[in-house]
């Protein structure tokens, strides 16, 4: 009988372990979550608040069976900036609220139609390839964070950044591989702390603690309820908000991919229990709430899924405490500012590991499903998904008469496009059974 090597969703680690495990998740998502509001002109503290509340709602709606943390979605950056500049921030946030309602509507459809059809359109060769894409398409972001700095608006290579990120990455890897017991469960936290201390000793000019010293101990997030309420009563604002709402169809594919990755990490079918409809509903409610009070739309986070894969601690209590900490920190100016001082190369160093772990989960699925790559059909489908996904292929809709105002700055990202392409190729090419893998055939023979 094999020994259990994970902490399940319903289990709660000891109090002494709970806090470090939760802080690790908070650190993993922090950099990307606050970057979105910084780029879009929203309030980082509000983004922390909405990510925490959104995560708690997500856990509640998914019955505590899906330990995902929700952070700020990058897909909405362009549309939010465009609409905010042209129509005001209230209209942009109304669009975010409407995008959350799109999720809710799709969740209702999925609940009615079921998920059996997904087994037909998403065989292992497609799912595994999409999972690899989700990990490796983020590699550019991780490497840029780890190796570059911004000088006069230009991103340039920095030996200092490379030095810091390498130290962080090496410490993270050694902690994950060499340490035992509880410390083996917090390699990301150990790596970030080590990278931060190393930067303080070797390159203190990169960490500005003055803002921490001058920040208020207690400070409320900048909620935008009045601006959104005004937009709700303005018919013209509704029309403009529809520019953002369709972005939800792009992030739906990302959500599906993250759910597939989490299923592989946890070795269970989360599509059926708690169900895709519940995860979509949770994400939609979190996104709608964020739009209502002034935060960027929410999404499940690759960084935190990477933490799950490394630690194999799936406890919903750990995720819930991380969410509570995010809420508390959003009201504490000094802690928020302190977290903002974490150097980008430090976050880049751990992100390289986290995103690579996600890609490795896809490779694992190829192996476990026994996908036959001597079959040309499988090879072509995987090749198309990997190249269009990792290559960063994007389709932008701009400047087309009547549709210009609706489609301007709407981009179908590489993950969504490669997923769609893989599904189409699987559906139109003959020999669909080969895409299921040899493991599926053996299982069917055993059942028969």
Give a short overview.
The chain is mainly alpha-helical. The chain contains 22 helices and six strands.
For the largest beta-sheet, the strand count, sense and barrel status come to:
2 strands, antiparallel
Overall geometry comes to globular
Can you tell me the residue ranges where pLDDT is under 50 for at least 5 consecutive residues?
Answer: 394-412
Instruction: Give the domain tally.
Output: 1
Number of helix segments?
A: 22
**Global mean pLDDT:** 86
Number of strands: 6
Question: Which radius of gyration do the C-alpha atoms yield?
Answer: 22 Å
Strand order of the largest sheet: 1-4
Strand content: under 5%
Element pattern in H and E: HHEHHHHHEEHHHHHHHEHHHHHEHEHH
Instruction: Kindly report how far apart the N and C termini lie.
Output: 27 Å
Helix fraction, binned, reads: 55-70%
Classification by helices and strands? mainly alpha
Transmembrane segments: 21-39, 45-62, 69-86, 92-110, 122-143, 155-175, 182-201, 237-261, 318-340, 346-367, 379-395, 415-431
GO molecular function: xanthine transmembrane transporter activity
Membrane topology: Multi-pass membrane protein
Protein name: Uracil permease
Keywords:
single chain, 448 residues, mainly alpha, two-stranded antiparallel sheet, two-stranded antiparallel ribbon, 22 helices, 6 strands, globular, transmembrane helix, NCS2, transport, transmembrane
Can you walk through the features of this model?
- Helices cover 69% and strands 4% of the residues.
- The protein is mostly helical and 448 residues long.
- It has one domain (15-369).
- Strands 1-4 form a two-stranded antiparallel sheet. A two-stranded antiparallel sheet has the order 2-3.
- Helix 2 (44-61) packs antiparallel against helix 16 and helix 4 (89-113) packs across helix 13.
- It is globular and about 70 Å long.
């Amino acid at each position: 009988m094999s020994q259990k090597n994970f902490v399940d969703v319903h289990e709660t680690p000891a109090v002494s372990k709970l806090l470090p495990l939760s802080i690790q998740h908070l650190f993993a998502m922090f950099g990307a979550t606050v970057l979105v509001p910084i780029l879009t002109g929203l309030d980082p503290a509000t983004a922390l608040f909405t990510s925490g509340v959104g995560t708690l709602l997500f856990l509640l709606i998914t019955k505590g069976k899906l330990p995902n943390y929700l952070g700020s979605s990058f897909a909405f950056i362009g549309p939010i900036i465009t609409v905010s500049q042209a129509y005001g921030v209230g209209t942009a946030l109304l669009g975010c609220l409407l995008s959350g309602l799109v999720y809710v509507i799709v969740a209702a459809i999925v609940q009615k139609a079921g998920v059996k059809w997904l087994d037909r359109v998403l065989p292992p060769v497609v799912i595994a390839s999409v999972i690899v894409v989700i990990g490796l398409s983020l590699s550019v972001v991780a490497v840029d964070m780890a190796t570059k700095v911004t000088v006069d608006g230009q991103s340039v290579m920095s030996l200092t950044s490379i030095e810091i990120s390498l130290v962080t990455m090496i410490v993270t890897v050694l902690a994950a591989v060499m340490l035992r017991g509880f410390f083996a469960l917090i390699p990301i936290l150990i790596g970030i702390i080590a990278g931060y201390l190393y930067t303080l000793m070797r390159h203190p000019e990169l960490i500005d603690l003055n803002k921490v010293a001058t920040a208020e101990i207690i400070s409320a997030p900048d909620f935008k309820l009045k601006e959104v309420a005004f937009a709700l009563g303005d018919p013209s604002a509704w029309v403009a908000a529809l520019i953002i709402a369709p972005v939800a169809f792009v992030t739906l594919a990302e959500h599906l991919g993250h759910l597939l990755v989490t299923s592989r990490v946890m070795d269970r079918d989360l599509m059926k229990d708690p169900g895709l409809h519940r995860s979509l509903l949770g994400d939609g409610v979190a996104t709608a709430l964020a739009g209502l009070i002034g935060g960027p739309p929410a999404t499940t986070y690759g960084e935190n899924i990477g933490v799950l894969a490394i630690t194999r601690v799936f406890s919903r209590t750990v995720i819930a405490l991380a969410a509570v900490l995010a809420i508390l920190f959003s009201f504490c100016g000094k802690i928020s500012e302190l977290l903002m001082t974490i150097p980008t190369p430090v976050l880049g160093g751990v992100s390289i590991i986290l995103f690579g772990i996600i890609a490795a989960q896809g490779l694992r699925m190829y192996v476990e499903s026994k996908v036959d790559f001597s079959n040309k059909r499988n090879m072509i489908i995987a090749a198309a998904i990997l190249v269009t996904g990792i290559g960063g292929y994007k389709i932008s809709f701009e400047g087309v008469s009547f549709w210009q105002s609706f489609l301007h700055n709407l981009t179908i990202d590489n993950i969504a496009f490669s997923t769609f392409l893989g599904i189409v190729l699987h559906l139109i090419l003959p020999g669909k059974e080969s895409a299921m893998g040899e493991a599926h055939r053996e299982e069917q023979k055993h059942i028969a």
